[in-house]
Structure formats: structure tokens, C-alpha cells
Amino acid sequence: MRAVITGTGMYVPPTVVTNDDLIRIMDTTDEWIKQRTGIEERRFVEVGVATSDLAAAAGKAAIADAGLEPSDIDLVVNATMTPDYYFPGPAPLIQHKLGLGNIPCLDLRQQCMGFVYALNTADAFVRSGQARKVLVIGAEVHSCLMPWKSWDVLLGREAGPVPQEEYENNTLTRGRTVLFGDGAGAVIISAVDTEDKGVIDSLIHTDGSQVERLWTKGGGSAFRPFFTSEMIESGDITPFVDGRRVYALAVINMPQVAIELLGRHGLKPDDLDLVIMHQANLRINEGVQKRLGLPDEKVFNNIQRYGNTTAGTIPIAYHEARAAGRVSEGDLVCFIGLGSGLNWGAILYRA
Predict the structure, then answer these.
(1) Cα angle: 123, vertex 127, 130; to 5 degrees
(2) How far apart are CA 166 and CA 89, in angstroms?
(3) Which member of 19, 78, 105, 112 is catalytic?
(4) pLDDT of 191-212, one tens digit each?
(5) Is the overall model pTM greater than 0.70, yes or no?
(6) Pick the catalytic residue: 278, 301, 319, 343?
(7) 144 labelled catalytic
(8) Among 73, 153, 190, 306, who pairs with 6 as Cys (CB 3.0-4.6 Å)?
(9) Whether residue 301 lies in the annotated active site
């Protein structure tokens, strides 16, 4: 029994924020952002739209793409680092919004590696016979973590400029805030009696000594009280990225884990038809691609248009790759990710 992707879907909010828009609230330029990240624009939700809303929209699209009804789904596995509420996680909300019935729902907190873990978890449920139709989602609303105050100026709904102190504070965190966007991607995992396609194998690693390289410091049981207004003012609720160190870790560990996984099956990077990497930074993905020795036609990137949607990046990219005709039946695909924890890993999949 194999776990096969039988449908995909995505949802990104309609509001586009370009690099030029960000100039309204901080000292930056389009060229500065593109040179360092490859990002040209990202999407942000309106106030009141939560992660479960995006996830439900992506999930609905994936269910339809698979030719299924909501009643066919028997498990939801959702990955996010931006839940609607501190608890519960969004999965029960997604279940309710999609009318899935009282099926089990699971939330994972693995940040940028969330979808890799979620897909791996769904595969385990299928192989053990505990599920036959699994809705797997990666969804994020990062805009809620941005320390900005003058949103209407950013979105061009009010004339600027923003107060000088705010402008300077926004500039202090620009190295991380320009990275993120909102969005959700989803896949349907179906149990299929075949050995010719589906999830072949996976390999995941964690190094807890690297936690502070990529984390959100503010908010949590390490503090009393759990959350303070000072955390917002200081930017401690905004994800922190040690850019140079994370880049170095990514361009070493991501190709290494893919090569190790391929080696288990007597395969090499040349045998791959398509690689979908976590979309954190285009420069990271270019470095990984170079180390794997892959031509451009074997790699799919879309961070330029969406920024880093953490758990959403891989399923969004895979959905767009399928829609663009970049995935054919029988293709050997590798999903590769790295994120906070430090977690990194890869999944080998036959389309």
C-alpha cells in the first residue's frame, strides 16, 4: 500500500504587497530585497482572516481536484506555526469549515519543515492502515507576526509618511520581515494498492543545538507572563533568522539529506525529474541546486511571488508545478526542506 497524491490545491489572499510597497514603511529597496532573497512580492490577508480560513480554502480545492466529497476524508493533518488561537490548533476548525464530520484531526508545529513532517505522518497512517484518504495542509498567516503599525500606509490606503520612530523600528527588523507571506497549500493522500507510485521513502533529522538560529523568542512558558506588549515593541514576536548561519546550514544539509535518501535506493540526483524545495530564500535554493548538480528544468521555485509561507511553500509549489505541466506520471520527485528546530529532511515520491 502506497500513499499517493491524488489531488492538490492552494489559496493565497488577493492582497499583493510588492517590495516597492514596503519602501513606504521602512528603509529598503526592491533591489536590496531581490538581491538577498529573490522575493519580488508576497500576499497578506485582511484583518480577521485566519490560518484556518486559508487552509480550508486550499483543502476544498484539493478535495475537488481529487474528485472527492468532504465525506470521503478520514483524517486531517495540518502544519502551521501561526494557529488561529494559542489552542486548539487550526485542524478542528478546518474540519468544521469543510464539513468533514467527526474525523480525527492533527496539528503539527514544525515551522518551515511542517509540510515534510505532515506528509511523512500521512504516509505512516496510510501504511499502517489507519487512514485511506488524508487531507494534508500547510498554511500560514505571517502578517499577524509583523511588528508594523501603519498597515494602511503600507497597502496604499492612506498617505504616508509613517512616524520616524516607527520607520526606524521597521527598518531594524527588515532583514526578516521582508521574507514572509501568507498562504496555504494542500494535498490529498490516498491509499493505493501499488508499488509503482506514491511516497517511496523519507529521511528527517533534527539538531536542537541550533534552535536560536531561527526562532521566535517572545511568547511562551519561558516567560512570565507568557506574553507582554514589550515583546511586540521589541520585535520579539517576529521570527528571527540568523541569515548567514541558516544559509550555511541549508546549503550543506539539504543536498546532503537528499543524496543520502536517494542512496538508500541506489539512485543519484541525476535520476530525479523534479525537486521541490522549501521556499525560504531563492539564494539558498540556488545553492542547493548547484550542489546537487541539477539543471533549471529539474527545479521549481515560486518564492519570487509569494515569499516564505513556511509550511505552505512546498504544497503551493507542487500544486503550481502540476498545473504548469512540470509533473508527469512516473516522474521521480524529491521534496526537500529545512527549518527551525533545526529540522531538515527529504521525501522521495513517484508521481
Answers:
(1) 95
(2) 32
(3) 112
(4) 999 999 999 999 999 999 999 9
(5) yes
(6) 278
(7) no
(8) 190
(9) no
